[in-house]
Amino acid sequence: MAAKTHRTAAPPAVLTPRALNRATLDRQLLLRRSPMSAKDAVTHLVGLQAQNTKPPYFQLYARLADFDPEELSGLMESREAVRTVSLRSTLHTHTADDALTLVPLVRAPRDRELKSFRRGLAGVDLDRLAAVAEEFVEERPRPLGELREELLTHWPDADPLALSVAARCLLPLVQVTPRGLWGRSGQVALTTVEHWLGRSAEPAPGLDATVLRYLGAFGPASVMDFQAWAGLTRTKEVFERLRPGLLTFRDERGVELFDLPDAPRPDPETPAPPRFLPEFDNVLLGHADRTRVIPEVNKGRNGKGNQTYGSVLVDGFLDALWRVDREGGTAILTVQALRKPTRAQRTEITEEAARMLTVMADATDHDVRFGTFLDFGTEPRATGGSRPRGPGPDRRDTP
Fold it and tell me: Is the pLDDT of residue 329 over 90?
């Protein structure tokens, strides 16, 4: 009788950085612009990083066909989308539905942040603080300074910054319009998400559903990738629970990656056109291991400290920086290449930059230049945008 043979499962396929790059770009709508609506895109991407007001618009321009900034602005004005603290305790633009369900699910980073301010909150009843703050901001939207002063009347010996941080960590606050609208400005004014939307929060869908959404927008990905994106810890059991319905791979370092069975994983040689991304774009922050988009040689080169620049994807990877300056009525976009582009790439980058300026720059004339604005041997000088504010509602993520 022939000896029985024992079959062993084939080892998971290994995905190269380029294969991971193309899969992620496809799901991030960066391989080709999508015809989907702004609302559907915000839902698909599980929110847009929004610690500054303009980046969400540039994120959608890079991803959607015929994008008009007024489309996203209209969603915010009609309260179908809001700016609120969520993933990684950072401001994001979310749909109203996600603001009511996803935000409570990723509260852990806010709880950790609150603990770091505990010395300044000695003797403060946090339940009472939340109740006082809620009543105050629901009377009418309040600037952060007004909220802080109100809390100081109840706890005059507490640290003022700690009081305001506690309010933003304990309550689901939104920054109300006109803050964040395209072409308009306004100071930060806060109220609760339920009050602003006029409806109560719904039961959170659970981490299982959130992991699946994450993989749909950022996969294939590891447990650590998901945790870095969400700001959560100890989620391995969620992936184990989902494992029977997922595919598994390995990266070149041997890290296990999970993915949806029917998710796109394009040929690694699929062309990837240049894309101009704003500071803190989703795709730059969506993984613990960012080498699928940011080559090791360019790690940390899109910003220093709180000063960050726009990123240009060339052949799918971060390979240049960009910034826009104004000279009279002319918007001047400067591209600083981190590696010398080919002649064809230079032409494609210039053409993409010109198209973006036509839609996104409020200027009568446009000019695209290649040059140097950041000396990597010294601290970069400020080049526009928000200045560092310290801990607060507009500054969280780092590049």
Answer: no
- Spatial distance between the Cα atoms of 83 and 181, rounded to a whole number of angstroms: 10
Q: In whole angstroms, what is the distance from residue 89 CA to residue 396 CA?
A: 7
**pLDDT reported for residue 387:** 30
Q: Determine the Cα–Cα distance for residues 395 and 259; give it in Å rounded to an integer.
A: 31
Question: Rounded CA gap, 145 and 398, in Å?
Answer: 25
Is residue 355 within 8 A of residue 368, CB to CB? The reply is no
What residue ranges in 120-262 does DSSP mark as E strands?
142-143, 173-175, 189-192, 247-251, 256-259
* Bridge-based pairing state of the strands 189-192 and 173-175: antiparallel
Which residues are registered as beta bridge partners of 327?
330
CA dist 373 and 339 (Å) reads 15
Are 294 and 277 in contact by the 8 Å Cβ rule? The answer is no
* φ, ψ (nearest 5 deg) of residue 312: -110, 125
Distance between first and last Cα of the chain: 64
**Three-state DSSP class for residue 327:** strand
Question: What CA–CA distance (Å, rounded) separates 319 from 293?
Answer: 10
Per-residue pLDDT averaged across 36-59, rounded?
Answer: 97
- On the 0-12 / 13-18 / 19+ scale of CB atoms within 10 A, 103 is buried
Confidence (pTM) = 0.91
